[in-house]
């Protein structure tokens, strides 16, 4: 009787129109409920029953209702969803077929199109698959998806690699091109330097070796030649292979696994600077003064070289760091010994000059996860940056600074690594913070490269980890630009990497630009959007690396859950909910909730984590701060969300 009453329907519509609406992004929790975050920064609670209609990350319009002092949002209309495809675990039984999204925040009920035919198509219970969203609950009757491809078999012990790359829409295998691999720039005059004793220093298992070094001592100091493999000699610009390399942008490195940017017969063979093999390269010879400064103009040129020695970091470090070597340890011959010692002297001078005149970042150890044939971590190696690492790093940094200046001068374009220092809207805050530590510098000076370098050198003398962390939070984001600009955090006017063209597409572009100057030929204009593309590609790779590493850490540390083992860890982030710390012995990241900082729940109520100041307070007294090294104990391992939860070993209170 009332169903088709036009007056009643009109009244309902009028009432609906009067309910306030807000548009924002859905943020799901792992406990069923969620929040609507508006563009103006307001948050409205979404009940679990309403969360069944939306997905994490959806942009929606919602009706806002008031209940006392609490506001809640009821989803009304879908504006946009980023969840068009996602990776899920497939469950197949006699009576039911279902999926569980790899992202625990996508916790909805998904109906599957053609579910009962999947087993006949070769899918098995426990397979990982990519699914496509066909209909959204706000647009139709629930969520409907379709399985479009298999990601990993149910019995693959290394499935987590394929899951990570599929989740972040990355390739899982090397590009495959049937190509004759002929040199495409025969007109380029290449010097024959095959008789010079160039050498490479890499990891023991490295296959894609892209840099070799040769050094001579002279009256002015040292002459250093950095030779970089030249894949642009084989990869035609705008070819299908080039487009695929641009799409990938980088070689992806995961534990015991990599997905190259270029075909393996290029990256690991024809372009790899293997010992005893003649290779096409682009070289830079620079003169380093006795004080470590770069003297005059560096010379860029094309050449053919031959690596005479294939070295690894450990052997070279052991040799240079010890006056006497044990029996059986690697020792260089007389020629190589002289080369390494001369390079060591040049490196020491160059490093000291950078400390005095630019900015040298604090060295961090590398953590290597060793895997068994079940895909599990059996050992984690903490490897500090040693002497051999510094030999290569200082050489590459010098070469990249030279390339930045070279491209800025000759092309006014390239792929530049840029950074503008303190964010513009935080300069005043940084100036006030520095004044608290006796470093007086105004905002205008901080905005200049010279002023920023002067400030960082003054901060370095304080050896204050807390101040370093506070300043880091005030920095702008690093960027990649097609036009020259300074790199504040390195303290240089220009920085353009070209030393890894096998692994980085931006370096391949810079190779082509350098060669266009050498041949005095026009070059293809650098796409002004290339920086945004490279940044996005690198972000996706880092997320895949994070997913894999966090999952492996969860498996490795599972047996330590609720044990009495104490880990030394540095606080690197403080938020309202607690602290994030990095374990020094293995590199794992733990989260310490504010509720686990005190002895009891009563103590926890007195604890305040202040993100703005980067401190933890108890009754307004600072007890912990960024940069502190504390003892923590692992309390919970959550592989589903890839989280490691810890408590303070010596609670506050």
From TrEMBL:
Keywords, comma-separated and alphabetical: Cytoplasm, Exonuclease, Hydrolase, Nuclease, RNA-binding
A Pfam family: RNB
EC category name: hydrolase
RNB domain residues: 190-520
Catalytic activity: Exonucleolytic cleavage in the 3'- to 5'-direction to yield nucleoside 5'-phosphates
Location(s) in or outside the cell: Cytoplasm
Main location per the UniProt record: cytoplasm
GO molecular function: exoribonuclease II activity
Enzyme Commission number(s) from the entry: 3.1.13.1
InterPro entries in alphabetical order: CSD, NA-bd_OB-fold, RNase_B_OB_dom, RNase_II, RNase_II/R, RNase_II/R_CS, RNase_II/RNase_R, RNR_Ribonuclease
Keyword Hydrolase annotated: yes
Keyword Cytoplasm on entry: yes
Residues in Cold-shock domain copies: 23-79
Family designation: Belongs to the RNR ribonuclease family. RNase II subfamily.
Protein name as it appears in the record: Exoribonuclease II
Species this protein is from: Psychromonas arctica
């Amino acid at each position: 009787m009332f169903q088709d009453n036009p007056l009643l329907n009109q009244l309902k519509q009028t009432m609906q129109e009067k309910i306030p609406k807000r548009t924002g992004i859905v943020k799901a929790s792992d406990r069923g409920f969620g929040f609507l975050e508006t563009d103006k920064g307001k948050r409205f609670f979404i009940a679990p029953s309403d969360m069944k209609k939306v997905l994490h990350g959806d942009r929606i319009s919602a009706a806002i209702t008031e209940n006392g002092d609490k506001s809640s949002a009821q989803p009304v209309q879908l504006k946009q969803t980023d969840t068009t495809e996602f990776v899920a675990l497939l469950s197949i039984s006699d009576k039911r077929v279902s999926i569980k999204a790899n992202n625990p925040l996508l916790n909805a009920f998904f109906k599957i199109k053609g579910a009962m035919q999947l087993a006949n198509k070769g899918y098995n219970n426990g397979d990982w698959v990519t699914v496509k969203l066909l209909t959204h609950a706000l647009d139709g009757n629930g969520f409907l998806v379709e399985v479009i491809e298999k990601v990993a078999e149910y019995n693959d012990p290394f499935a987590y690699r394929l899951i990570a790359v599929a989740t972040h829409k990355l390739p899982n295998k090397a590009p495959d091109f049937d190509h004759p691999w002929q040199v495409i720039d025969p007109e380029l005059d290449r010097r024959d330097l095959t008789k010079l004793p160039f050498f490479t220093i890499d990891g023991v298992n490295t296959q894609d070796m892209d840099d070799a070094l040769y050094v001579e001592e002279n009256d002015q100091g040292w002459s250093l030649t950095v030779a970089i493999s030249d894949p642009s000699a084989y990869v035609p610009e705008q070819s299908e292979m080039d487009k695929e390399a641009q799409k990938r942008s980088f070689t992806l490195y995961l534990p015991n696994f990599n997905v190259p940017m270029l075909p393996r017969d290029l990256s690991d063979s024809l372009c790899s600077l293997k010992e005893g093999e003649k290779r096409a390269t682009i070289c830079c010879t620079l003169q380093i003064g006795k004080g470590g400064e770069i003297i005059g103009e560096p010379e860029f040129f094309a050449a053919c070289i031959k690596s005479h020695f294939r070295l690894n970091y450990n052997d070279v470090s052991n040799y240079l760091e010890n006056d006497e070597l044990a029996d059986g340890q690697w020792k260089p011959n007389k020629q190589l010994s002289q080369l390494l010692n001369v390079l060591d002297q040049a490196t020491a001078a160059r490093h000291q000059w950078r400390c005095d005149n630019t900015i040298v970042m604090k060295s961090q150890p590398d953590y290597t996860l060793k895997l068994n044939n079940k895909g599990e971590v059996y050992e984690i190696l903490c490897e500090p940056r040693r002497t051999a690492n510094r030999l290569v790093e200082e050489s590459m940094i010098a070469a990249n600074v030279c390339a930045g200046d070279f491209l800025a001068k000759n092309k006014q374009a390239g792929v530049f690594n840029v950074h503008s220092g303190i964010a513009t809207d935080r300069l005043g805050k940084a100036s006030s913070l520095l004044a608290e530590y006796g470093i007086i510098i105004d905002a205008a000076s901080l905005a200049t490269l010279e002023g920023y370098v002067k400030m960082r050198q003054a901060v370095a003398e304080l050896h204050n980890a807390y101040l370093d962390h506070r300043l880091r939070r005030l920095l702008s984001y690093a960027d990649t630009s097609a036009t020259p600009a300074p790199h504040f955090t390195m303290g240089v006017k220009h920085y353009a990497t070209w030393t890894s063209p096998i692994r980085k597409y931006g370096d391949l572009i810079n190779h082509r630009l350098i060669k266009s100057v050498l041949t005095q030929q026009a070059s293809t204009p650098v796409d002004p959007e290339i920086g945004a593309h490279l940044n996005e590609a690198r972000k996706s790779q880092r997320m895949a690396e994070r997913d894999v590493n966090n999952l492996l850490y969860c498996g490795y540390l599972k047996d330590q859950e609720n044990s009495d083992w104490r880990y030394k860890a540095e606080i690197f982030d403080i938020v309202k909910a607690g602290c994030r710390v990095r374990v020094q012995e293995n590199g794992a990241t733990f989260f310490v909730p504010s509720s686990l900082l005190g002895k009891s729940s009563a103590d926890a109520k007195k604890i305040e984590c202040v993100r703005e100041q980067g401190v933890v307070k108890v009754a307004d007294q600072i007890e912990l701060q960024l940069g502190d090294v504390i003892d923590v104990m692992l309390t919970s391992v959550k592989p589903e969300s890839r989280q490691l939860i810890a408590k303070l070993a010596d609670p506050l209170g």
